[in-house]
Request: fold
Amino acid sequence: MISFEIIVHLSVPVLFIMTIEGWGESDVEEVVEMLEIVYSDPKNAKLKSNAAVNFMKDLTWEKQIQRLLVMLQNIS
Reply:
């Protein structure tokens, strides 16, 4: 089963697949289909790219450890 999470706190909502089942076993047709989608809509691709860049900028070790510490404090 595949579970999804939509990240809405970004400027553009991003859909993340929260599983690794099938990861690393890319289907050539699927890759071509995704590349065609990106190529056919460059403005949307740029929006998604910018959202991903901003999301990744927020994933520093320092910030992640602080988030973990807050979560652990809330548990105890």
Remarks:
- The beta strands are 4-7, 14-17.
- Residues 42-57 form the longest helix (16 residues).
- The chain has one domain: 4-75.
- Residues 4-75 form one domain.
